[in-house]
Design a protein that fits this description.
about 525 residues, alpha/beta, TIM Barrel, Double Stranded RNA Binding Domain, 3 domains, eight-stranded parallel beta barrel, three-stranded antiparallel sheet, about 20% strand, globular, binds 3-methyl-2-oxobutanoic acid, binds zinc ion
């Protein structure tokens, strides 16, 4: 491999999906994985297959259907995890098993409650088992940056001896300083000369806001894979933001010795919007690279400068990251063919009944909106074109005034195709619709989060509603899009009901890799 090429390992669907409150279903994960493939990431960590049947199925679907990147599944260092990871990824053109075990004394003593000797055995057995199944094995000594470097080196050497070809060094709790992280990698390279023959990877968390800085320090110390997530989502404060590390390497390439990635940067903004929409995690307006204001100039001095010469106040061009993609694409007179072409330009191949459905929805929106932009179409696709069977909001009726409490009646199509009605008098029109849906479906779901966004600017903008609701201790998200906020909210709510019910029905307890007990002794 070219020594200047930096591999991008995307963990949006694994570490990112572990963010509090995020819960993506298999269809949503597949949609994100397809966009990651368009973005040109080298590796997609598709999930943690042992965690639940839903996780397993999503990883398997991605392995079977997403072409291009390596597809990785995460496994703790135990036989059942490694087997599950392999079963889930084995149908990919290029599968990878990523196995890990903690090396810090604090984790060994308190979380795993075992010994360094156990960790030696666990690492050796897991990598050997993974390697017997899969050619491409990655190993991570978890909490590496708080571990004794000599002991970490010993474990890393064991992993390489057993056939791991990527060694990832996690700053699991986001504690390291860039200088410390680089020094840790440099010392490891001295202690384990075999690291020259494998890919060294960074995996940095953002608890102190240093995830991207630490990843860069790691790359400067010789790492050639960066683990990161779209919009920086992930456990607690999140992971290194993919878009930031990629644009940092690209913008400062000349000063970083010509390092480069294979990312199609024009797809970054779209990936960011999709992940934000499906996870319900908003992107802050001033977020680097993909925030709404990342290329906006408020001060007259800045505006004046940019009008005269863009580089006076801009170090990147918004088009490079795909932030200028909201131009008009279709109008109310556009036909089915134009819609199909526009969707295809956006990367969605839509035919037959799905195209008819999309066209009907497009016409409804185009009647209300003068201009239908690429961003509107993206929202429409995410909202409408899912192959999902579940609840559907057929109609709603809401009466509200300042003199009497709002009353809503709804008709909901149930998964068996029958229609159910419900009505409720609530605190506000949206609350009334949500309770009326509960009444129609006979489910006692509780709203946990509610967010409204405008897809684009302007008075006739499409409204996008994201909800997270809870049922029987499970939570799930749903999104809805419409020019009418109440309709968007109702659509989001029934979709979230479908998702949460699927989770309740699957019955599996949610598991997260960092929070579960490891076997006490080597198997
Ligand atoms: O942060 C971490 O250490 C992880 C490992 C599972 C790689 O996510
Ligand atoms: Zn992590």
């Amino acid at each position: 491999m070219d020594p200047n090429r930096v591999l991008i390992f995307d963990t949006t669907l694994r570490d990112g999906e572990q963010s509090p409150g995020i819960s993506l279903n298999a269809t949503e994960k597949l949609e994100i994985a397809q966009q990651l493939a368009r973005l040109g990431v080298d590796v997609i960590e598709a999930g943690f297959p042992i965690a639940s049947p839903g996780d397993f199925e999503a990883v398997q679907a991605i392995a079977r259907q997403v072409e291009g990147p390596v597809i990785a599944g995460l496994a703790r260092a135990n036989p059942a995890d490694v087997d599950a990871a392999w079963s889930a990824v084995k149908d990919a053109a290029r599968p990878r098993i990523h196995t890990f075990v903690s090396t810090s004394d604090i984790h060994i003593e308190h979380q795993m409650q075992n010994t360094r000797e156990d960790v030696r055995g666990l690492a050796r057995a897991a990598v050997a088992q993974a390697r017997a199944l899969c050619e491409d094995v990655e190993f991570s000594p978890m909490d590496a940056t708080r571990s004794d470097v000599e002991f970490t080196a010993e474990i890393v050497k064991i992993a390489i001896d057993e056939g791991a070809s990527t060694i990832n060094i996690p700053d699991t709790v986001g504690y390291a300083l860039p200088t410390e992280y680089a020094a840790f990698l440099t010392r490891l390279a001295e202690l384990v000369p075999e690291l020259r023959d494998v890919v060294v990877s960074t995996h940095c968390h953002d608890d102190l806001g240093l995830a991207v800085a630490n990843s860069l320090a790691g790359v400067q110390a010789g790492a050639r894979q960066v683990e990161c997530a779209i919009n920086g989502i992930g456990e607690r404060a999140g992971n290194a933001a993919l878009e930031e590390i990629v644009m940092l390497l690209q913008t400062r390439a000349a000063d970083l010795g010509g390092l480069y990635t294979g990312i199609v940067t024009g797809e970054l903004a779209r990936a960011s919007r999709l992940v934000s929409r499906l996870t319900g995690y908003a992107v802050q307006p001033n977020k680097a690279i993909v925030g709404r204001n990342a290329f906006a100039h408020e001060s007259g001095i800045h505006q004046d400068g940019v009008l005269k010469e863009r580089t006076t106040f801009e170090i990147m061009d918004a088009t490079t990251v795909g932030l200028e993609s909201s131009q008009l694409v279709l109008g109310k007179h556009s036909g089915r063919h134009a819609l199909r072409q526009a969707l295809e330009d956006l990367g969605y191949r839509v035919e037959g009944q799905t195209l008819n459905q999309a066209f009907k929805r497009f016409k409804e929106i185009a009647d209300k909106k003068k201009q239908v932009t690429a961003m509107d179409l993206e929202a429409l696709v995410t909202d409408e074109l899912r192959e999902e069977t579940g609840f559907a909001l057929e109609s709603f009726d809401v009466g509200a005034s300042s003199r009497r409490p709002p009353h809503a009646s709804v008709e909901v199509r149930l998964p068996d195709g029958s229609l159910a009605q419900g009505s409720f008098t609530g605190d506000g029109p949206v609350d009334a619709v949500f309770h009326a849906i509960n009444a129609a479906t006979g489910l006692d779901a509780r709203l946990r989060e509610f967010r409204v966004d405008a897809v684009t600017g302007g008075q006739d903008a499409l409204g996008e509603v994201s909800v997270v609701l809870e049922l029987d201790g499970r939570s799930a998200a749903g999104q809805g899009v419409s020019t009418d906020i109440i309709e968007a909210a109702g659509r989001a709510y029934v979709r979230a009901l479908t998702h949460v019910l699927a989770k309740v029905a699957s019955g599996a307890a949610p598991v997260k890799p960092e929070t579960v007990e490891m076997p006490a002794v080597a198997p």
